[in-house]
Amino acid sequence: MGDGRIPVPELPVDMDWFNVQEPVRLGSQRGRVVLLNFWTASSIACQHMIHDLDWLQRKYTDRLLVIGIHAPKFAHERAIDQVQKAVNRLHIHHPVANDPDLHIWRQYRASVWPSTVMIDPEGGVVGMLRGTGHRQTLDNLIGSHLEFAERRGLIPEQPLARECEPERSAVVLFPGRILATPGRLYISDSGHNRILETDHHGRVLRAFGSHSPGLVDAAGIFAAFSNPQGLCLDGDFLYVADAGNHAIRRIDLIAGEVTTIAGNGMHGVMNQAWYEDPRQVSLNTPWSLLMLGGRLLVTMAGQHQLWLMDLSSNRLQLLAGSGEPGLRDGVQGGAVMAQPTGLAADAGFVYITDSDSSALRRLDRSTGRIDTLIGRGIFENGDTDGILDRVQWQYPLDVCTGEAAGILYVADTYNNKIKRIDLDAKTVSSLYLAHELDEPGGVYVHGGRLWIANTNAHEILCVDLASGICQAVALNDEDAFDL
After folding, report:
1. Distance between CA atoms of 356 and 325, rounded to whole angstroms?
2. Which residue from 13, 32, 15, 22 is spatially nearest to 124, judged by alpha carbons?
3. Distances in Å between the alpha carbon of 427 and those of 386, 399, 424, 473?
């Protein structure tokens, strides 16, 4: 951050606001430190920053005011209702203003997500921090500026009146992923911080984790997760990408016990090629898992990489990805990805959804090379079906193999669609469903049916692939906590 004080420009009066009863005026915040956080819902880096801002807000309470300026990257993110969903899904409690045309973004000369502008208690701009990892720097700056304000006798006005708009009550809240077996469904009930085991009719048989976020290894509802996402089944063990805890968990489906096998619960940057004790490592938002012959493939979405955990030797090693966001083919560190979030495999390849570049990548299992099947660049997206090399998507979060060889299904999340890929014909088509999708985040095919985690609608859908009939699963958990 730079020195000197620049008068802060006022926010426009016509912005759409969330979590407050009326628009926030910067000129009325004397005596407080104000942080303007420029963020976008699709960015995992922004999610990391939001956690740091929450920590700072709890520490400084009413002497600090955090204001989120939602500056969307994708067209889908501009809509008011989608911003509200993102605010609720990410548990944002501070005031948020929507900047759909990036007017405020340009005014403050923001260039990356996230960017955080600090305003001192006298209303002057202190400077801007770009990216993440600035909690301690901000903590020191806020403390020193508030001490100065106290010496000057600057006393803030009354706290802002908050007014949140909660989600409707539902059995699942923002479900992220779905996995099916012949008699069971396993659901990442991400907004409730738990994993559900149900039958195919939706009756909840067991719950792992309660509604409260945390990192607790225990049995059933006494365990704790935080925003669990990807699921992978291997025999009697269900593996979970516990994204909010930056951990990988294992559920023993016989004993009902939850165990942490990787991650220490802290967000970090993995700067080594391999680790001997994965439980001591600060992971970076693992999002999806895939079992490959006793080895667990992990999309480390927060670090734009693929990692491999050998379950026999308990060794965690980097497989591919430079660690910087982008779209470039190659092997190992020569490959560049952008928030890989979905995994599927056939006999020769692993398929990866690169959400932030709206791409589908393919990993050759024999050579380790990553190539791009769909995608043109980190800022290139749209909604175009047809021949593979002409296709455009918008923030695809998941991929699964179909019942027949050469068929894939993709959750084209920000287009609110499911796409079917025929690898032999090299074509992509949209599935017609007589049911509205709202940011579907997970797909899985089993037994002639396509299961969908319809994330923002808080529901699980089942599509009969032969007839095309789509129905919502009638989830019922009235007995889940009596086990």
Report:
1. 8
2. 32
3. 5, 15, 8, 30
* Contact predicate 295/310, CB 8 Å: yes
Query: Which alpha helices (DSSP H) does 266-423 contain, by range?
Result: none
DSSP label at 211?
Answer: S
Q: For residue 407, give both structure tokens.
A: 């068929």
CA 461 – CA 435 distance, rounded (Å): 9
Both tokens assigned to 408: 């894939």
pLDDT at 159: 80
Average pLDDT, rounded, for the chain: 95
For the domain bounded by 6-156, which CATH number is listed? 3.40.30.10
Instruction: For residues 451 and 418, give the distance between their C-alpha atoms in angstroms, rounded to a whole number.
Output: 11
Contact (CB, 8 A) for 192 and 208: no
The tokens 């659901």 sit on which residue? 187
What one-character DSSP code corresponds to residue 40?
-
Whether the model pTM is above 0.85: yes
- The two tokens of residue 444 are 């899985």
CA distance 76 to 213: 28
Residue spans of the domains in the chain: they are: 6-156, 178-482
**Residue 19 CB contacts under 8 Å (≥ 6 apart), including other chains:** 87, 92, 93, 94, 95, 96, 162, 163, 164
Protein fold of 178-482: Neuraminidase (2.120.10)
456: Cβ contacts below 8 Å, ≥ 6 apart? 82, 85, 89, 174, 438, 439
Give me 439's structure tokens: 């940011």
To which H or E segment does residue 371 belong? Answer: strand 369-374
> What residues of the chain score a pLDDT lower than 70?
1-5, 478-483
Place of tokens 């149900």: 198
pLDDT at 479: 56
Residue 56 has phi, psi (to 5 degrees) of: -65, -40
- Sheet containing 369-374: which strands, arranged edge to edge? 330-331, 369-374, 359-364, 349-354, 340-345
